[in-house]
Specification:
two-stranded antiparallel sheet; Tetracycline Repressor, domain 2; 2 domains; mainly alpha
Length: 308
């Protein structure tokens, strides 16, 4: 069996052994799962009221498994383009370590089980939100938006914004303005985060025909959009303090992080040539991950202190 390099050329034999546990874990996109777990925990602990510790663990596990199921189904559908992109060519399906049918079955079973378990054991509002998240990511983003419009990340970003809302709903059984605000922070964070990546991975997306903004509108327009979204995101991220969702530590942290985020976005907008432009985009992409972890980490920490 042969594989493709990122340039579309034959890359020699690929693995064809029986899939390992590690291969299936890789299908679930563990790095993405870690962000999902963290933001859902923040939503769960920030919510008013309490949830029995066993049910809280079940809720987080279900959200985690649901996110992993989405990742597996995404890899199943995108296996054709994954094999031709440098960033994704070593994933289990392109390398022949897991078949497409195995990934489809794995993701489908995990999707159904995570939704049913969350709905039956915790509550059906949280279960329905998890089902919506999985369906949105697979059918709306992966199958429809991703290969058809440069707004794929903007609209499709909603899928990654639901976890704190699901965590909140697990405790309260409702969707409130506080959980919507947590949703909106991730929603507005997603475009500058992914467009920074797309700037220095533009050739990958161009090669496989995915209409990422740098491919369709060019790098300069992408830089402008990154700056515009960053200008909206940074004050939005301060807002939890003003509705009682974050304390003084959150206020100071969100302002400081926002200033750094804006500085890096301005740097991406200003530097447009050569390796320095790639370094600027990589810098923003890397910091954006830390930014979101720290924002939600402070929310989680402040509410843990008051509840323990």
């Amino acid at each position: 069996m042969t594989g493709l390099t990122a340039e579309g050329a034959l890359a020699g034999p690929v693995t064809s052994t029986e899939p390992s546990v590690g291969d299936f874990i890789e299908l679930m996109k563990p790095r993405v799962m870690s962000l999902v777990v963290f933001t859902s925990l923040a939503g769960l602990f920030a919510a008013p009221g309490s949830l029995h510790p066993v049910l809280a663990v079940i809720a987080i596990l279900c959200i985690t498994v649901g996110a992993g199921a989405s990742g597996a189904l995404n890899m199943w559908y995108d296996a054709d383009i994954d094999a031709r992109m440098a960033r994704t060519a070593a994933r289990p399906i392109p390398r022949g370590r897991v078949t497409a049918d195995e990934a489809l079955a794995f993701g489908s079973v995990l999707s159904v089980m995570s939704v049913l378990t969350l709905g039956v054991l915790v509550n059906w509002v949280a279960g329905a939100l998890l089902a919506l998240t999985i369906a949105y990511y697979i059918f709306f983003y992966t199958m429809w938006l991703k290969r058809r419009t440069p707004q794929n990340i903007v609209i499709g970003g909603a899928a990654g914004s639901f976890p704190p809302m699901i965590g909140w709903a697990a405790v309260t059984g409702t969707v409130t303005i506080e959980s919507v605000l947590l949703f909106l922070i991730i929603f507005m964070w997603t475009p500058p985060h992914f467009w920074a990546l797309a700037l220095y991975r533009c050739r990958d997306y161009e090669r496989v025909g995915v209409p990422m903004l740098p491919v369709v509108a060019g790098p300069d327009e992408t830089r402008r959009q990154i700056l515009l979204y960053s200008l909206v995101l940074t004050p939005l991220a301060v807002a939890p303090y003003f509705i009682g969702l974050g304390g003084i530590v959150y206020l100071v942290t969100s302002i400081a992080l926002g200033l750094v985020f804006l500085y890096l976005a301005l740097k991406v907008w200003r530097i447009r040539e050569g390796r320095e432009a790639d370094h600027a985009a990589k810098g923003l992409f890397g910091f954006s991950i830390l930014y979101l972890f720290l924002l939600f980490g402070v929310i989680l920490g402040e509410h843990l202190v008051t509840k323990i």
